[in-house]
Amino acid sequence: MTSKNNGLPAALVSNLQDVLSKRRGGNDEGVVSEKSAEEAPSTSDSVVKAVEEEEIDDSRPIVLVTNGDGIDSPGLVSLVEALANEGLYNVHVCAPQTDKSASAHSMTPGETIAVSSVNIKGATAFEVSGTPVDCISLGFSGALFAWSKPILVISGINQGSSCGHQMFYSGAVAGAREAMISGVPSLSISLNWKKDESKESDFKDAVGVCLPLINATIRDIEKGVFPKDCSLNIEIPTSPSSNKGFKVTKQSMWRQSPSWQAVSAHRHPGAGNFMSNQQSLGAQLAQLGRDASAAGAARRFTTQKKSIVEIESVGVAGKTDSRVKKYFRLEFLTKEQEYTDEDLDIKALEDGFVSVTPLSLLPKIDSETEAAASEWISQAL
């Protein structure tokens, strides 16, 4: 790999390439082989009991895991099982009850969040009727766990790429970002899942790829040499077991295109009940709380007396004295895009590399943070 201006000092870029090359025995310069690298808290008896029974092993560092796909997703389950099997960490899980993949950095203020204990072997786990950011914020609050700060937060493994501008939509990246805001080092991990090509066992292979980097991260956090004010976004290619190695990358401008599809209320009679059926338990509990207000109940009663007209979700609704209800469904579509810069996350991922992108809270990562992160990655691998 030829030396490029990656926004880093030339000496650091050269050092990075030398270290990565040595790990491959001098082959494929600049690359490292993967082989080397109920209501909570006061009214939920199950949660209170789980917290009371929790035993903290102070000799092991605490690792908190969340994700965007939901607590039952195979990516999270595979990751937690692997971390628990290492026997080195006190693994805790605080993850969304349902899929919150595109929730971005949203939170749920003013509503009751329901938390339930979940049985995941080797871990203390809770599912939360909120977003990934809710999960991290709650986990750090001291209200759920007997501690307030883990040594590391890992968000993933996400099903689908979070490269480029997709990071702004990603609930998985947001979970890691919330940890960084609170001063806790974090990793977000995604698998470049492709329909009709990827399979569930790929998540286990993805764990095998990123586990050495996770171990190196925790080791150097304990030593005090992990880059501060930095989170790493790790993107694993579609075929994890045949990856070409790790590559330090920059965030690209790649993103999937949002596509809004009109849904007819007449062709889909159940559409009117879709949102109510999808309400989380927390939202329903919050609604009950709001209904306790007589004034609020009176306003809703008056509003509900107005006639509502359901129309076909096509074209623009004309003027009417009645309220209009239309239905739409959002999907993200992947467009073919050409990228020539070898240092971009999406380019490295599509070429079969494991992309590792340092992120900061600044609009553009400063050169000092980027240099420190790149130097650490090169030494860790």
TrEMBL record:
Residue ranges, annotated region (Disordered): 20-47
UniProt keyword annotations, A-Z: Hydrolase, Metal-binding
Listed SUPFAM superfamilies: SurE-like
GO molecular function: hydrolase activity; metal ion binding
Survival protein SurE-like phosphatase/nucleotidase domain segment(s): 63-256
Gene source species: Cardamine amara subsp. amara
Keyword Phosphoprotein annotated: no
Spans through the membrane: none
InterPro entries to which the protein is assigned, alphabetical: SurE, SurE-like_Pase/nucleotidase, SurE-like_sf
Family label: Belongs to the SurE nucleotidase family.
Keyword Protein biosynthesis: no
Protein name: Survival protein SurE-like phosphatase/nucleotidase domain-containing protein
